[in-house]
Amino acid sequence: MITIVPITDHEVYEVNGKEIYKDSNGNWIAREEFTQQERNAFTNYKKAVISNPNFKKHTKATYKV
After folding, report:
1. CA–CA gap between residue 19 and residue 6 (Å, rounded)
2. Which of 3, 6, 32, 34 is least enclosed by beta carbons within 10 angstroms?
């Protein structure tokens, strides 16, 4: 199971305890290497929540793999 927790909406998130943030160029940078499953889960979260203007506040999400 993969858990994604927003730290700062549109800027910093935690994926299974690994931090990922958006740099000044708009690229998502992880301090630690993600597994393929973690990367896929974050991509799905990004499409469903981060890029969705209907979400005012981002929520915690859990993905089963």
Report:
1. 10
2. 32
Question: Which one, of 24, 25, 20, lies nearest residue 3 by Cα?
Answer: 20
Residue ranges of alpha helices (H) inside the chain are 36-45
Two tokens, residue 7: 């730290």
Pairing of strands 18-22, 2-8: unpaired
Cα 52 to Cα 50: distance, rounded to the nearest angstrom = 6
Task: Using the structure block, give the residue that is written with the tokens 């994604």.
Answer: 4
The pTM score is 0.88
Q: What angle do CA 15, 11, 26 make, to 5 degrees?
A: 105
Going through the chain in order, the beta strands assigned E by DSSP cover: 2-8, 12-15, 18-22, 28-30, 61-63
